Amino acid sequence: MATVFHIPLALLLDLVVGDPRWLPHPVRAMGTFARRLEASTRRLVRSERLAGVLTVLGVLGATALVTGGILHLAQRLPFPATDMVSIVLLSYGIAARDMVRHSRAVHEALDANDLALARKRVAMIVGRDTEKMDEAAVARATVESVAENLVDGVTAPLFFAALGGPLGIMLYKAASTMDSLFGYKNERYVHFGWAAARLDDVLNFIPARLTGLLLVGATALLGLQAGDSWRILRRDRLAHASPNSGHTEAAMAGALGIQLGGAAWYFGQPLVKPTMGDPIRPLEKVDIQRANRLFLATGLLAGLVLSGWLLWRQLG
């Protein structure tokens, strides 16, 4: 069975099963290994930036060796076990169901008027301080996280799966995991995390821009404001500190008729981020559900487009 069929089946597997916490997960293993390697390289090398580069190379190398070894062993298995191993590895790299589950849990807490619980739940999916958030800030942070994780958790993994199969998706997840661990501009990681952050920026450059366009298409399919989504995407896509995150956040803001960005707190310090979108109406908790629908529709559209591209290449 070819990768053109593996991708939609892996996406379906993630949407149905997700990532059960009782099962070992390669991304958690990557994170554990990266932390241990960080400690080792910091001891061995005086330069924090060089230590960060060595850590990135070490994690990518280990990921390639382990994934390649699993695929090599799987090739010795009878049909259809080889295909099943590839599909499972691909599904491990996709995090659609997990993102929807976390954001839905935030919405449920807000819907129950339990702001304290909503703050705790949103803290699981954002890197900002949540202790003093009001309901609107919690909803905004959740919608922004859904928009940003559309690339990291769904479309970029599918993109690299289309390019490199299970090995491609696992290498991308290793890079993304290191960025989530080390890609902070605080005192500890401003130098050490440079390599991880730059690698993540490079890898997400094309997927982020492709996803912004697909999100506009998904907006049209769902009968939302596709024209506004396209307009805000073009206008505000570069108004983000990240070279990539603004594409999906801008398209999402336009689709929902809300404004994202603005004031937030990180590590006890205030930060006013550029805004994206027009404040046509106040952002409300139900926008989390709307964002989730756009998230899923865009992910499915990406899977369809990439599978179609692979099929076109094979038939050509």
Structure write-up:
By secondary structure, the chain is mostly helical. Helices cover 72% and strands 5% of the residues. It has a two-stranded antiparallel sheet. Helix 9 (226-236) packs antiparallel against helix 10 (245-256). The radius of gyration is 20 Å and the shape is globular. The model has no long low-confidence stretch (mean pLDDT 94).
What key phrases describe this protein's structure?
about 325 residues; mainly alpha; 2 strands; globular; two-stranded antiparallel ribbon; 11 helices
Furnish the topology, listing elements before pairings.
Blueprint (H helix, E strand, L loop, with lengths): L2 H15 L8 H19 L3 H27 L6 H12 L3 H16 L3 H8 L12 H48 L11 H28 L4 H11 L8 H12 L3 E7 L2 E8 L9 H30 L1
Antiparallel strand pairs: 1-2
Looking at how many chains there are and whether they match, the oligomeric state comes to: single chain
Low-confidence stretches: none
Q: What percent strand?
A: under 5%
Q: Return the string of H and E elements.
A: HHHHHHHHHHEEH
- Considering DSSP H and I runs of 4 or more, what fraction of the residues is helical? over 70%
Tally of DSSP β-strands: 2
Number of DSSP helical runs: 11
Shape: globular
Q: What do the pLDDT scores average to?
A: 94
